[in-house]
Amino acid sequence: MKRSYHVVAIPIRIVLNSFGDHNPNGMMYVLKENEQKVKEMVKKNPFSPVDLVQPLAIRANEGDTIEILFENKLPFNTGIHFQEAEYDVCQSDGANVGLNKDSTVAPFKTILYRLHVVKEGNYFFSDLGNPSSGENGSNSNGLIGALCVENRFSWWTDPETGKVLNSGQYADIHHPILPSFREYVWMFHDEMEVDDLTGNRPINHFSNQEEESFHGANYRYEPENRRQQLISEGVVCPNCQGEEVHHDSWVFGDPSTPILRGYLGDPAKIRVFHGGVKETHVFHYHVHQWFSDPNDLASEIFDAQAISPQSHYTIQPLYGLGSLHGSFGDAVIHCHLYPHFVAGMWGMNRVFNTLQDGTQCYPNGVPIKALLPLPDREPPPKPTKLKPGFPNFIPGKVGLKAPRPPLGIIGGRGLTELERNAAIENPRPGAVFTDPCPEDAPVKEFNVSLIELPLTYNKEGWHDPTGRMFVLDEDIEDICSGKKDPEPLVIHASAHTCFHINFTNRLPHILDGDAFQLVTRTYEVGMHIHFVKFDVLVNDGANVGWNYDSSVLPGETAQYSYYADVELKAWFFHDHLFPGAHQQHGVFGSGVVHPRFSKFLDSETGKEVNKGTQITTSNPLIPDYRDFVLFAQDFTHLFDKNGKPLSPPPFPGSPDDPGLFGVNYKNEPLQFRLGKECDPAYSFSSYVNGDPVTPILKAYEGDSIRIRLLQGAQEESHSFNVHGLRWLKERGDLNSRLENQQHIGISESFTMEMHIPRSGDYLWAFETEEDLWNGLWGLIRAFDEKVPDLITLPDRPEPLKRSKPLPVCTGTKPPPAEDPTSAPIKGPIRYFDVVAFQTSIVYNSFGDHDPNAIIFALRKDMKAIKEGLKNPEPLILRGNVGETVEVTLTSLLKQELFPFQDGIYPYPIVKEQAFYPPSLRISLHPQLIDYDVKTSAGETVGFNGDQTVGPGESRTYRWFVDSQVGACGLWDMADIRNHKSQGAFGAFIAEPRGTEYLNPYTLESDTTGANVILRNPLLPDTREFVLVMHDGVRLLDKNKQVIFDPVDGILLASPEVDEDLLDTYDQGSRGFNYRSERLINRYQKHPMLHDLFSSKVFGDPATPLLESYVGDPVTIRLVTPAERRRSHTFHLHGHRWRFDAKDSNSRTESFVGFNVAGATRNLELLGGAGAYNGFPGDFMYRSGNIRWDIEQGMWGIMRVLGELKEHLPPLDQ
Amino acid sequence: MSKPNESQPINDIREAAIIKHFRKNIEKRVFILTEAFPFMYIGKIVNVVEDLVEILVQTTSIPALEGKTWIVHIHSIDVFYIETGVGAKIPDLKD
């Protein structure tokens, strides 16, 4: 079916909340039919939000062809680029890329775009006519939107009126066969320009400094600062502090941000998009859970899910609104990154239990808009005087904090008459309006308290004097007296458990002030939980909307009740009243829901336990396993042993990335692990420095283990890597891909299940440079023989009696690792002779270069590189399944060629810079393939032998390609400060058995190189392109001046550099495969924003040109070996691939999110080059981060040729 | 059910043998794994009707489904073990 829309891009004033905060230079896409109306309404309401000012959301059905007549009324060229759709790239790309015809539109001109939408799902769209990231850029100012593609034969109506809907963020979707559902578009976006009522940047009324940047959804935000001002000015809630009532509608009325309304049990889809330009956010939705891939029942269950710029997913809450147990009330939806939450990035899902026909009011007198019941569902009962429905039975007072729930607090109140009418038959503490626990569910009781005590993070005395943590009451004395080492509280139970929690607030009323934050009255706290089922009104451990405030004052005890219905992962808990103030001090914990019938044992004594970050689990039906829990932390407020604050913010209370990092209240910074010889190559060695204080996860060779990965605090992305082990991405799905890296944001939870094939020390690490530098790493230690402090897994054979003593710290250089080549060879063998040396790399034709790069290369190529005949590319090695690969590495590093002899790089920097002299040793560590960590991990870790090589030395690693994992990163582990971001990385590609690799231009055999043809007797010839996405590069320009990217690369930059631009983890240049096509260079030559990607104007970019013919099978191998914590989205125009290449049920998308150190992905393009419709032309591949990646050169071109060209032989099919 | 003979396809023979085995073990406890939800269950064989087995399910991964009689298509079972008294005992699982 053909569907037509007339879309106009207009300038518009966007009022972001009812406090009058606004963007005077906003821009939006709007349907032509609404253009005049929205302009008039904005004119009449200059300081109030206008409903029609919202990101454009339009709809179509799977299989439709959509014609968009696009009209540009902005003063520069704009366009609409649609992700996921298929289209003629020369006509409908909404950009001016390569040799294509320009499909952006000049001011006051029009263009017709024609799109084919192949699959149901989320199609994000945005402008690429103006790719600048600054205040004048189009994306940050609102030129973004959503196309929701529904199942075939669907139609949609307005939820209030039932009329047909042409556009809008909320719709009811109907289908002749499938159930109707509520559809909500949730568009995160960030970094929008904001002025207050006076036309100035908003000021934080508490600190008198400029407010945190904009973080909102659907052109709205509701900052704590604004609401708190009403308290401080005495308008509302005189005794409140601020954060604890930030989401309280009793105090402030409803927020301006989205409220997704529905009735109990309604099926729903939340179309979540990230239309922002910079940050990775975490979408969290209280009470509800969903499949990570709605069409794949074997996919992971989430209730918090990260999202990086220009990516998206659909959330289909399991069991509909209110979840399995039918919990009505307000479920807050928010970005879990606290500075963003505090800045206003939240809204809620309001689940009514009575019919709303427009005649009812909220307690503050605001009318409740009508909401039609879904036509195929029983309408809810009409409200009556005795049963008025949510929220009108709650005995709150407008202008004051929400009331405490009935029954919940020991010594608290009972139910009012209206509450009794609304309650279930037998209300009990923690389950008043719905009871999540089935009658026969076994009850497990935990007495939990929140306490304050100093926490020491490492042997150097770095400490948090106001640490705060959850503890079991029976452990308080032992922890406070120092008998037990503090660790985050982890409680354990089996599925089908009804939890009874007695939660006591033992915190002081006041969180003290220091260099990091101002004195804050954190006088009430709650225990908010994820994943488990609970009554949201009384049990949320939070204070949201028109719900109760389910927290307690100091000395009080709340009784909560939850139910774990099935085996869940580690469920996260934390305080929801003052998390912005104190979660980074340690206020987080977890419960692990194990398979039913499990027993939990102390791993040292074998006695039954109910808590611990490291336990042993025994189960009668499945293999027994070790269970380990790791929490990543950032914004950790640490002082050194002399009381000096470490990495304090610019002023107390600033959200500008204060503090350092931790894992389970510990860290092991590398600056203290140089040893006597001052060689970074042995930083991870326990021979030189002893074991780290961070968790050492203990097991025996052959054990099954589960690592529960969580992030407890507070704002940033982290990249968890395990070296030498791997797990199924979707734990319950044998068709899932193998991984050994996981991106994580706060509140996310992942379970990695694996077994340990051999003894040895395996490194786990949060592996971006700054995390690792500041100590986020530890070991998995697999013993070969019995040790006294670790029981055997009950279903595993007893390990052999110890025949040799365990190794100990000697303080000296570790012994060399054994030679792996003496063991028998499995399968055919492939040899590589690799050298590591220093050279210069030219990153683009404008002369940007790295004169001090370190690269890996085949020895045969070294001469040409050194003589400047060959510009280096990252080393790409290949091998086939079933083959043994031997790589001999030789170090040719020279001391004098390191630019900073003390290892302190003036730019880019890391937090807590310190002396770390360059190592002349180097190593080569591979991901995902199989090897013995004691000989071939390419690193010197724990009590494993030395696997690095010094100048002139060689060492051979032996790897076995046991699985067709495709892309694997390769990198140096000898010196993470002086080698990796300088280029010491590459990739290994594990190909199908029997594959040959051909140079695509000469058709000669070629095992290395980023661009090859794969020829396999059983598979079609396939073009393979390896893209190595990397950042944190120190480049010099043609005048040998340091390039201070990202700042130096900003187009239309404002003269004053914002301090926020200088976050350590944004620093440095970036690109693909040692190349970067920085737009600023092009702009200086030809200052037309919409032409910056044009090869007609500038020639092709320096980044790899991926050439193919229409219909050629294409696989892109994407690896991100280095280096910074900012996560990048990858997007290829006009093409899609299965999210999980191994899983035929996987959703198909055109982006890959979360590209941070260690990320890998194999993208098999559906329909081959040019996609199913076979369109030739130039398709851009690029980062999805407008700020600060595309400008800084993270883009390139995939050229799909429609006609035979002499230089590129066709595939032999 | 006809006796196996040489002209019968091997799958028919196998299926008939499985049905026979279930019928022989009515009243015994059985442990079953299936590819489909709910993947694992333990119960008592109550009856066998054609190629359907009636099982009183004592334990499965979803507690709400326990204590009920299920009619299961025998050939949708991927793995099973019947407690005949000869091999290991199927554990009695309690929360």
From TrEMBL, chain A:
What is a single molecular function from GO for this protein? copper ion binding
Please give the superkingdom of this protein's source.
Bacteria
Keyword check for Cell inner membrane, yes or no. no
Query: Pfam families from the xrefs?
Result: Cu-oxidase_3 (PF07732)
- Chain segments carrying region Disordered: 801-823
* Alphabetic keyword roster: Metal-binding
Describe the location of the Plastocyanin-like domain by residue ranges: 57-152
What name does UniProt use for this protein? Multicopper oxidase
The organism of origin for this protein:
Filibacter tadaridae
Lineage start: Bacteria, Bacillati, Bacillota, Bacilli, Bacillales
TrEMBL record, chain B:
Highest taxon of the source? Answer: Bacteria
What name does this protein carry?
DUF2642 domain-containing protein
